[in-house]
Amino acid sequence: MKKxxxxxxxxxxxxxxxxxxxNMTDEELAKRIGKERKSICHYRHNESEMxxxxxxxxxxxxxxxxxxxxxxx
Length: 73
Hints:
By secondary structure, the protein is mostly helical. 63% of the residues lie in helices and 0% in strands. It has five helices and no strands. The radius of gyration is 12 Å and the shape is globular.
């Protein structure tokens, strides 16, 4: 069985869009989830992958679901 690859550039775009909708900066989101600002910047620009715990924290802060952030649904 072939492992499905996630389109990370879309995750970064959705993350950026959600942050814009919530009027939230990289620094503010980072503070709220216990990460550094540069980590959020890396997620938004698809330069690194986030772990499950980080994904769940981001979803909680931005009032969204992992399905939306990962798949757009």
